[in-house]
Design goal:
This protein has helices spanning 2-19, 26-33, 37-44, 47-67, 75-92, 94-106, 112-127, 135-154, 164-178. The chain has 182 residues and is an all-alpha fold. The protein has 2 domains: 1-55, Arc Repressor Mutant, subunit A; 69-182, no CATH class. Residues 2-62 form the HTH tetR-type domain. This is TetR/AcrR family transcriptional regulator. Keywords: DNA-binding.
Amino acid sequence: MADVKDKLLAVAYRVLESEGPAALTTRRVCEEAGVTMPTLYHHFGSRDGLVAAVHAVALEKFMAKKRALTPTDDPVADLRTGCEHVLEFVQAHPSVTAALMARGIEQPSIFEPSYALMRHRLERCARAGALRVPIERAAEHVWAVVQGLALSIVASPSGAPPSRATSAGALDAVFQAIADQL
């Protein structure tokens, strides 16, 4: 049974990633997985259950990469690397990111693990004496800039995501505002 559920999730994730949330229908997932609708509903209860499970898979893929970063002796550089990894994920998975951002508007708690990891990295910066502002303010600044850049990658009015130089410049600005380089 777990194999069928895993297959449904894999198909749903692939559809979401390649074609976006509008293409993620229960009919499409069942056809591509080679199962019937009752099988999908048995495992997920509804389309919303399937979508929530796919979002959980996407968040876990995202968080696994963030957690895999090995801390160095420079907590500011580690924080910056974490921010850059977020933007790399967004660039590589724009449809998944757009779906996660939309869900995050409805259910902000899905971002708590990511926020907690960012905050942990900021606390390391504070312990090293590298923050110019209180942790809460630094967290607000970093979160806002990275989320803004992510949104501009997936939903730019010009149709083109910001250049690497633009993203780097925005990160430079926030890091100059919150931290002293070690």
